[in-house]
Write a structure and sequence with these properties.
Strand content: 25-35%
Strand order of the largest sheet: 1-2-3-4
Helix content: 40-55%
Distance between the termini: 34 Å
Order of helices and strands: HEHHEEEEEEHE
Number of domains: 1
Oligomer: single chain
Number of strands: 8
CATH topology: PH-domain like
Shape: elongated
Structural class: alpha+beta
Largest sheet: 4 strands, antiparallel
Length: 173
């Protein structure tokens, strides 16, 4: 786990050196927090009820580990430059033209980690196959480049929708 974290931080340093700005450089780690807490709680409950079935408990711990590893490997950290949006995961690196971004929206989800508030945004874009795709990411408003990213995207694509508010009253998310 520590090796994966070290490799992720090494990738981030390289990307930041070549002129990209981080939109969500710790997205993969933030998306692990809730599943980690839930799986840990479920395994502790199983442990208390199924003391005699040690193999079932070991299976639950292994299943949790592989689920979290898969989620970490497939979740992208998000960077941007003056023309492109970069999605970098351990498995795949993608480059999306900012002109293909159609919507940037704040969602209702947010999370507080060690006192720091993180907000969940989603970006709609058209991929290379002309299919609409959506990515979700967490960012902190305090150290975020979200405002610069929105201005840059608006400058390249006048039709982009930007919503920095969210409501549960009669609107779809």
């Amino acid at each position: 786990m520590w090796l994966l974290l070290y490799l992720c931080l090494a990738d981030i340093k390289i990307l930041l050196k070549i002129g990209m700005k981080a939109l969500s450089k710790n997205n993969a780690e933030l998306k692990l927090i809730l599943p980690l807490v839930l799986l840990l709680t479920a395994n502790l409950i199983l442990l208390s009820f199924l003391e005699d079935h040690k193999y079932l408990i070991i299976f639950g711990v292994l299943l949790s580990f592989f689920y979290l590893k898969n989620r970490y490997i497939n979740t992208s950290n998000i960077f941007f430059s003056s023309k492109y949006l970069y999605l970098n995961s351990k498995k795949l690196k993608r480059k999306i033209d900012l002109k293909k971004v159609s919507k940037i929206k704040l969602t209702l989800s947010n999370m507080r980690v060690l006192g720091f508030q993180f907000y969940r945004y989603k970006i709609h874009f058209q991929n290379d196959n002309r299919l609409n795709e959506t990515i979700f990411f967490y960012t902190s408003i305090l150290k975020s480049e979200i405002w610069e990213f929105q201005d840059l995207t608006k400058g390249l694509n006048k039709n982009v929708e930007i919503e920095n508010y969210s409501t549960s009253w009669g609107t779809k998310q």
